[in-house]
Specification:
This protein is of the alpha/beta class. The protein folds into two domains: about 130 residues, translation initiation factor eif-2b, domain 1 (Four Helix Bundle (Hemerythrin (Met), subunit A)); about 210 residues, Translation initiation factor eif-2b, domain 2 (Rossmann fold). Helix content is about 40%, strand content about 20%. The chain is built from eleven helices and 18 strands. The strands form four sheets. A nine-stranded mixed sheet has the order 2-3-18-17-14-11-8-9-10, sandwiched between helices. The radius of gyration is 20 Å and the shape is globular. The two termini are about 30 Å apart.
């Protein structure tokens, strides 16, 4: 357990921000043994999550084009991990183009940044990380290769530290709970390490016994393939349920909380996350189950007020349709959005590394933004 120091709770009108400062002296021992991304100096090793749990395969990339492909094809997924991968992708672009032409490399790197930005439209961490890397490259740099690698590593390590802090804050809210459910995969596989929603689960399991359920998360089955595998790696018991069994689970009284991650959060607290999250939030409201969203502040898009402004990625129909229907002239097609938007009114708590916002619908996340500024 990390040594922590709780600050005084601060109230602003009707919403509450709770902050915590964690002393991350044991960060290395605290994080999981699961690593979605591994930097090796001249290349990025990406765990191909499409093959889990049957195969543990790392693909190596030495340029931005390869990293873009890894993101677009969902070898790496989860908003924080996508942002980290993109940062390393920029570093690889600088290595490639600066070594070829130290005097005229910037334009090629800009083109690679544009390519990386096109990989996934919904995860705001992607654009956040690319903006940080771009801002660095606009400065006069004596050694652009070393500078970009250093910043990419910092983005990675900062994410791990944020996850550890969020884990403790979220676990505080879960104190005394008998059961919870999580959706999709918001663990070490989706982040720099430890996880957002699964980080909270890891932290609460260090404190008390709690029953954990996970939905299968169709159509990519991240709950079946990734969350179940991660929890098994960490020695945490959990039960898998069919997505369609969630309402009956809540009706049974077995859970008090749903804990999920996020791919984008608006200024008022609306949350874009894996398809099915909105359904769970509606069901939770009906059954008196609380809804916790766990995400770093880099996932908050302050430029968007309302969830209706979020671009929702549509994946190809073939990812959902059986092969029988995949032919010219087929009368059966597929509508395949991979995210939905849960309005702030359905969310009990937004947990970030900067603090917890309870009932975000009352005043949005403005109080948290003031904390950051």
């Amino acid at each position: 357990m990390l040594p922590i120091r709780m600050s005084t709770e601060r109230r602003n009108n009707k919403f509450t921000i709770i902050t915590l400062t964690a002393t991350l002296t044991n960060m290395t021992s605290a994080i999981t043994t699961v690593h979605a991304l591994q930097w090796a100096g001249t290349h990025l090793a990406v765990l191909d999550q499409r093959l889990l749990p049957d195969q543990l395969t790392y693909n190596q990339y030495d340029d931005a084009k390869g990293v873009t492909e890894a993101i677009a094809t969902m070898q790496v997924r989860g908003a924080p991990a996508i942002g980290i991968a993109a940062a390393y992708g920029v570093a690889l672009a600088v290595i490639q183009h600066y070594q070829k032409n130290p005097k005229q490399w910037q334009q090629k790197v800009k083109e690679d940044i544009t390519l990386l930005a096109s990989s996934r439209p919904t995860a705001v961490n992607l654009f956040w990380a690319l903006e940080l890397m771009t801002a660095l490259l606009e400065q006069p740099l004596t050694n652009p290769i070393a500078a970009t690698i250093t910043l990419a590593k910092k983005i990675h390590s900062d994410d791990i530290a944020a996850n550890l802090t969020m884990g403790e804050l979220g676990a505080d809210l879960l104190a005394g709970a008998k059961g919870l459910m999580t959706h999709c995969n918001a663990g070490a596989l989706a982040t720099g390490g430890y996880g957002t929603a699964l980080g909270v689960i890891r932290s609460i399991c260090q404190r008390q016994t709690i029953t954990i359920y996970m939905g299968e998360t169709r159509p990519w089955l991240q709950g079946v393939r990734l969350t179940a595998w991660e929890l098994a790696q960490e020695g945490i018991p959990a039960s898998l349920i069919a997505d369609s069994a969630a309402a009956w689970l809540m009706k049974s009284g077995a859970i008090e909380w749903i804990v999920v991650g996020a791919d984008r959060i608006t200024a008022r607290g609306d949350v874009a996350n894996k398809i099915g999250t909105y359904s769970l939030a509606v069901l939770a409201k009906q059954h008196g189950v609380k809804m916790m969203v766990v995400a770093p502040t880099s996932t908050i898009d302050w430029s968007i007020e309302n969830g209706e402004e979020i671009a929702i990625e549509q994946r190809p129909a073939h990812e959902l349709l059986p092969s029988y229907y995949q032919h010219d002239g087929s009368l059966i097609n597929a509508w395949n959005p991979v995210f939905d938007v849960t309005p702030a009114e359905l969310i009990t708590a937004v947990v970030t590394e900067r603090g917890v916002v309870m009932n975000p619908t009352l005043l949005g996340l403005q109080g948290l933004k003031n904390e950051i500024l």
